[in-house]
Design brief:
Blueprint lengths: L5 E4 L8 E4 L4 E2 L11 H4 L5 H4 L2 H4 L9 E6 L13 E6 L18 H10 L1 E3 L6 E4 L6 E6 L12 H14 L4 E4 L1 E2 L10 H9 L3 E5 L20 E6 L16 E6 L3 E4 L5 E4 L2 H18 L5 H10 L20 H6 L13 H8 L38 H45 L23
Length: about 450
């Protein structure tokens, strides 16, 4: 799978971050380190907490008890703003530490930046805590480290890492999965099918970054294009579509801040950065808040709440730049929202049924998720490949069979009529042949008598 990965050039300003292209799969950011800033200055830079309804949403919940998996480059759980927030983890690359808490790959700090935006809780004493406060500061994090952006020294490629990461997250109770990574292709390996289907069937919300134009991604790539995944586009400080930090696509679900962001770095530092890598955890955090307030709500209903309460922007209705609109955390938690019958951003189960027909059905792992949910809609069943059939069901087949029988009857009648005609012709030809045999060799055949008008032969009385 070709990649849009580009490594940030830290020597340039934020909006003009230079890129060095890599391979395989990318983490979606345009990272630039801030000058050494005191932790108490960081809080003032988090403009999205007030502008996007997050502080209002905190009046209902801060995400207590909800597990969110961060599939990324690893998360430094020792960061002051993440202490006690990371409750588990793993490494699927073979190159990291078993707990997923060591930064690896081309941008090892990426996972910690994402984690602090999602579930940082600040630190310090007194009435004004320092550091970064995430959207869901009381959520529990699961760190899943992957090696992305350059050749994995352990030799495990992304086709294996991604499905392994998703399955581990589901099996360890994740109710939300954040994937701030992308590729330059809309398609994905078939090896991913069963893992995303597994997450769908276990009622897990998956949020993915749309990708960055500055990184060479002019349209969103997988996993953002996988049906059922909530894809997040990026906004600038003014709330307009980011010119650098957001790709466009018909799969965009919602837009969130992606410029002038701040996040935590491994070792306890901070950085300013940009990209839909930062927009995605803001939306994942809102998903965690919803799951905390409505613990029995299905993943489809959670996603529907986020997109249906978003503030419309750009072209009326859904569009490929803002999706359904701009994130509004307060409305997502507190507005009256009608239930939907299915996930409004699609279903991987349905996609597999249509697009993988004739191919083996993805293998399923029977291990249940560890969190308790009661979906408000029926969970999808495992798709089974069926033999191709005519469109329209049984009626076209019946018509074809009927025409076939009719043709056979016509042919049979034709053969019967042909044989009858031949027998009749043979019967008529028989007497004429006998008469011709009697006169053979005796001269001309006798002529019938000539009769007059009165029926007598001439010359006879």
């Amino acid at each position: 799978m070709p990649s849009s990965l580009c490594r940030p050039d830290r020597s340039r300003p934020l909006r003009a971050a230079g890129m060095v292209c890599g391979v395989v799969l990318s983490l979606v950011s345009g990272l630039v380190f801030a000058p050494a800033a005191a932790a108490d200055e960081i809080r003032e830079k988090q403009y999205w907490l007030g502008a996007y309804g997050i502080r209002e949403a905190w009046k209902s919940t801060k995400g207590d008890g909800v597990k969110v998996a961060i599939i990324d480059s690893g998360v430094d759980a020792s960061h002051p703003d993440l202490r006690n927030a990371v409750i588990g983890g793993t490494d699927v690359s073979g190159a990291g530490t078993p707990d997923g808490q060591t930064g690896i790959g081309q941008t090892p700090e990426h996972g910690t930046l994402v984690a602090t935006l999602l579930a940082g809780h600040g630190h310090g004493k007194g009435g004004r805590p320092d550091g970064i406060v995430g959207v869901a500061p009381e959520a529990d994090l699961l760190a899943v480290s992957t090696w992305l952006g350059s050749q994995n020294p352990a030799g495990i490629d992304v086709d294996q890492q991604i499905p392994a990461a998703v399955r581990w997250a589901v099996d360890n109770g994740a109710q939300v999965i954040n994937m701030s990574l992308t590729s330059s292709t809309t398609s994905w390996p078939q090896s991913w099918d069963s893992a995303f289907l597994y997450a769908e069937q276990h009622d897990v919300v998956i949020v993915a970054a749309a990708g960055n134009r500055a990184g060479g991604s002019f349209q969103s790539g997988a996993p953002a294009t996988i049906p059922g995944v909530l894809t997040v586009a990026g906004l600038d400080r003014r709330g307009n579509a980011s010119q650098d930090a957001s790709s466009q696509s018909i799969v965009i679900g919602v837009a969130a801040p992606a410029e002038d962001l701040v996040g935590g770095l491994p070792g306890g530092g901070y950085a300013e950065w940009s990209g839909t890598s930062g927009a995605a955890p803001l939306v994942s955090g809102v998903a965690a808040l919803i799951r905390a307030k409505y613990p029995q709500m299905s993943a489809a209903q959670v996603i529907n709440r986020i997109i249906s309460t978003s503030r419309d922007a750009g072209a009326p209705g859904h569009d490929p730049i803002y999706g359904f609109g701009v994130l509004d955390a307060d409305a997502a938690l507190n507005a009256e929202v009608a239930e939907v019958g299915q996930n409004p951003v699609g279903s991987i189960a349905q996609w597999i049924t249509v697009h993988r027909r004739g191919q083996p059905t993805p293998a399923q792992n029977s291990a249940p998720a560890t969190h308790s949910t009661r979906p408000a809609i029926p969970e999808p069943t495992t798709p089974v490949a069926v033999a191709p059939r005519l469109e329209g069901g049984l009626l076209p087949a019946a018509v074809v069979v009927g025409f076939s029988v009719l043709i056979l009857l016509v042919l049979a009648l034709g053969v019967q009529q042909t044989l009858r005609a031949r027998r009749l012709a043979a019967a008529q030809a028989g007497p004429a042949a006998d008469d011709a045999g009697e006169g053979a060799g005796s001269g001309p055949a006798p002529q019938p008598p000539v009769q007059g008008a009165d029926g007598k032969e001439p010359g006879k009385p």
